[in-house]
Amino acid sequence: MEKTSTDAFPFTMNSSEKQETICIFGTGDFGRSLALKMLQCGYSIVFGSRNPQKSSLLPNGAEVLSYSEAARKSDIIIIAVHREHYGFLTELTEVLKGKTLVDISNNLKINQYPESNAEYLAQLVPGAHVVKAFNTISAWALQSGALDANRQVFVCGNDSKAKQRVMDIVRTLGLTPLDQGSLMAAKEIENYPLQLFPMWKFPFYLSAFLCVFFFFYCVIRDVIYPYVNSGKDSTFRMAISIPNRVFPIAALTLLALVYLPGVIAAILQLYRGTKYRRFPDWLDHWMLCRKQLGLVALGFASLHVLYTLVIPIRYYVRWTMKNRTITQATAKREDPFSTSTAWLSDSYVALGILGFFLFVLLGITSLPSVSNTVNWREFRFVQIFIMLLHFHRSVTKIASETRSSPKMLNSGTKRHCIIVSFPSWASHAKTADYSWSHRCEYRVKSTNNY
Ligand SMILES: NC(=O)C1=CN([C@@H]2O[C@H](COP(=O)(O)OP(=O)(O)OC[C@H]3O[C@@H](n4cnc5c(N)ncnc54)[C@H](OP(=O)(O)O)[C@@H]3O)[C@@H](O)[C@H]2O)C=CC1
Ligand SMILES: [Cu+2]
């Protein structure tokens, strides 16, 4: 075996151990980056290239030969060439017989070809052992050493010996190999890097839609309607009041959507009378992105908390309070302290805090590192508590509203339907900001919207 790398990287090369030579086909970005990394880890590198003389920017210590010459130097060959150019490999079938070919290629689109690139390579060079690896690692990450984000290398292949050798190399490079089984898994591995936040797409679009929809709904209700009705300019509501109503609605809707697919799945299983049948694709996907839905919901809930905390320092709120006090004083009206109202309002806020705390707890327990330490029953326990708190909170809220404004009782029947069907959602949808204490008139009108 040759040792060309010793001069370039004497510090990583232990003279007593003789590292194997690895052949890399293709002197492009990825080939060069991988070679550099391998040289640093003590391997000898032989490049195979169409133009061995013209190749430039190659790492020091690497040798460049023609494809067929390079292939003879090593029995592990990394194919750093795009799939479209694999054609030349058919001429090398004899040389490549019995060797390990590592397919690192990616495609531009998901399921671009009927068979995976690795399986295609195996068809082109029948005598070789094809192993899929490295495709999830980027050339940039290899060069800059920024591998903390993704150290995982999915490896699959039909020949277990060849696969084991590739996994050893992956380990030597300081990466974590994950055995994905036979070459049949290659397709999935190739699709993986093309999926941009695969499980986040649906939650993202859904929450964007919810936000936009409810924002405009609230604008029509709280800005345009009062303007048309009484010429009142309340555009300032678009900064805090309306977002603070939109966020909790979005949070609770998303939270409901976290639990809904489980119920649908259970109903479906009962209806079919078996659990050994696949769910429809939409349900499957929905189930798989529940954690993301939950985390987005938690994000909205946190925003809601922040927006709620600033309420007392808002000019509008301070002005309203001051004005009420002055009006009351000049009219010499009395407003005796009501312990029950104090109780209701305090417990309302307290339940909100506890509900949020448990929501955060649920978010934390759903993180993989934490959920491993929490068993399923403990997880359910936290979830059920959140549900209970949400429910209680909305009931106290409705109770306090009803007390603070006897007029509210008029629409009581309608509201009860809402309470039963969508407890906390409804309570938030109605009034999420301070206005509940001093906009009773207006609220009676708006409640009828639901
Ligand atoms: N860049 C990246 O971050 C990653 C790339 N990959 C995969 O690695 C493979 C190579 O990618 P990358 O290095 O970026 O691509 P480049 O275009 O930079 O390099 C491809 C190399 O293929 C060789 N080649 C052989 N035959 C042909 C041909 N007919 N036409 C053109 N080139 C040919 C060339 O080397 P020569 O001139 O020496 O013959 C060329 O340098 C691809 O399959 C890609 O999907 C995978 C993960 C990440
Ligand atoms: Cu709230």
Q: Return the domain count.
A: 2
Overall SS class: alpha/beta
Q: Between the first and last Cα atoms, what is the distance in angstroms?
A: 79 Å
Chemical compounds bound to the protein: NADPH dihydro-nicotinamide-adenine-dinucleotide phosphate, copper (II) ion
Organism: Felis catus (Cat)
InterPro entries: Fe3_Rdtase_TM_dom, NAD(P)-bd_dom_sf, P5C_Rdtase_cat_N, STEAP_metalloreductase
Domain Ferric oxidoreductase: 249-389
Transmembrane segments: 204-227, 247-271, 292-317, 348-370
Question: How would you describe the overall organization of this protein?
Answer:
The chain crosses the membrane at residues 204-227, 247-271, 292-317, 348-370. It is a multi-pass membrane protein. This is STEAP4 metalloreductase. Its cofactor is heme b; FAD. This protein is an alpha/beta fold. It has 2 domains: 21-194, NAD(P)-binding Rossmann-like Domain (Rossmann fold, 3-Layer(aba) Sandwich); 198-447, no CATH class. The protein is 55% helix and 8% strand. It has helices at residues 29-40, 67-73, 93-96, 117-124, 139-144, 160-172, 186-191, 201-230, 243-272, 281-288, 290-309, 315-330, 339-365, 368-371, 376-404, 412-421, 423-430, 440-447; strands spanning 21-25, 44-49, 63-66, 76-79, 100-103, 129-132, 152-157, 176-179. The protein has an 8-stranded mixed sheet with strand order 3-2-1-4-5-6-7-8, with helices on both faces. Bound molecules: NADPH dihydro-nicotinamide-adenine-dinucleotide phosphate and copper (II) ion.
